[in-house]
């Protein structure tokens, strides 16, 4: 039986206990604040926003260097793994996937497979977790990739931003739209469309209405009566995330509901206070 390693980039945001339990390796993206560059895994959201307050501009993000992937792949293979599945955020919004492919090409004889999640945050994280489960059950890389292809369109991610300022900074919306939306308390619900691009799922007045609208999507998915893995996601909004998780746990007893915090790369684009849900059928 082949031993399969599972690797993801740092925007998967699985908790340390899951990463440790399944021996998932993480290749980190970078966050650029002023003249300084930090690895995402070295920054908490608190330190990130604290540093951001001290500069006049905004932060940016960048994909891992090819060398970072190369080092990780070599390390994993030296530990006795026969094959690697490397799962990453949508190549439509980041060069991370391309960096992974270039590293793979430098290791011509290695059995490495690069998988585009078509998503990010826990859209990516939940797929990685599923792959790690299958690897532990003894499925080989080709079998896991087939399962991931089937699960990917069933994995849904919705994000509610607390402010439009960060979307404006990143060029996602114009200044007038940002001001107008802020004055009207517009809370856009973001998602990854079928092309792997961040898009507006719906624009809602007030955060509570946005949450209720997102709950409807979860309710639709759960109407299949299949068990699901459900991720409650937040950016520096732990109290709200706990409240949401408790509410969902009471309503949907028996479902696997956990809380995850998205880090500075996602925070760069959605800002503090953002909340989200990601979910897919499990076991699948």
Topology summary:
Blueprint: E1 4-9, H1 16-22, E2 25-27, E3 30-33, E4 36-39, H2 45-52, E5 60-62, H3 66-78, E6 83-88, H4 96-106, E7 112-116, H5 121-137, H6 141-151, E8 156-160, H7 165-169, H8 175-183, E9 186-192, E10 198-205, H9 207-222, E11 228-234, H10 238-251, E12 256-261, H11 264-270, E13 275-281
Parallel strand pairs: 1-2, 1-6, 6-7, 11-12
Antiparallel strand pairs: 3-4, 3-5, 8-9, 8-13, 9-10, 11-13
Helix pairs in contact: 3-4, 5-6
Keywords: Lipid-binding
Organism: Desulfitobacterium dehalogenans (strain ATCC 51507 / DSM 9161 / JW/IU-DC1)
Protein name: EDD domain protein, DegV family
Task: Tell me the name of the CATH class of the largest domain.
Answer: Alpha Beta
Radius of gyration computed on alpha carbons: 19 Å
Strand order in the sheet with the most strands = 10-9-8-13-11-12
Helix content: 40-55%
CATH architecture label of the largest domain: 3-Layer(aba) Sandwich
Mean pLDDT across the residues is 91
Q: How much of the sequence is in beta strands? A: 25-35%
Low-pLDDT residue intervals, each spanning 5 or more residues: 174-181
The shape is globular
Number of domains: 2
Helical run tally: 11
How far apart are the termini?
22 Å
- Biggest sheet, open or closed, and with what strands and sense? 6 strands, mixed
The chain-level structural class is: alpha/beta
User: Could you name the CATH topology of the largest domain?
Assistant: Rossmann fold
Order of helices and strands: EHEEEHEHEHEHHEHHEEHEHEHE
Strand count: 13
Protein name: EDD domain protein, DegV family
Keywords: Lipid-binding
Pfam family, one: DegV
GO molecular function: lipid binding
């Amino acid at each position: 039986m082949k031993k399969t390693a599972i690797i993801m980039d740092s925007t998967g945001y699985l908790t340390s206990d899951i990463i440790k339990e399944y021996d998932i390796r993480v290749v980190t993206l970078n966050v650029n604040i002023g003249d300084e560059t930090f690895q995402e895994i070295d920054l908490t959201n608190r330190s990130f926003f604290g540093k951001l307050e001290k500069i006049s501009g905004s932060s940016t993000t960048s994909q891992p260097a090819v060398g970072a992937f190369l080092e990780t792949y070599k390390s994993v293979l030296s530990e006795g793994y026969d094959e690697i599945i490397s799962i990453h955020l949508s190549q439509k919004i980041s060069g991370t996937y391309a960096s992974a492919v270039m590293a793979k090409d430098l290791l011509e004889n290695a059995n490495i497979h690069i998988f585009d999640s078509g998503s990010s945050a826990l859209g990516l994280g939940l797929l990685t977790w599923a792959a790690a489960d299958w690897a532990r059950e003894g499925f080989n890389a080709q079998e896991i990739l087939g399962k991931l292809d089937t699960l990917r369109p069933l994995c849904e991610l919705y994000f509610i931003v607390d402010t439009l300022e960060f979307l404006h900074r990143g060029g996602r919306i114009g200044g007038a739209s940002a001001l107008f939306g802020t004055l009207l308390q517009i809370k856009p619900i973001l998602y990854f469309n079928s092309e792997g691009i961040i898009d507006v799922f719906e624009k809602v007045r007030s955060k509570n209405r946005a949450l209720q609208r997102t709950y409807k999507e979860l309710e639709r998915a759960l109407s299949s009566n299949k068990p699901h893995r459900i991720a409650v996601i937040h950016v520096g909004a732990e109290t709200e995330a706990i409240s949401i998780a408790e509410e969902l746990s009471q309503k949907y007893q028996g479902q696997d509901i956990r809380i995850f915090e998205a880090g500075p790369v996602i925070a760069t684009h959605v800002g503090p206070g953002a909340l989200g849900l990601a979910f897919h059928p499990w076991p699948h």
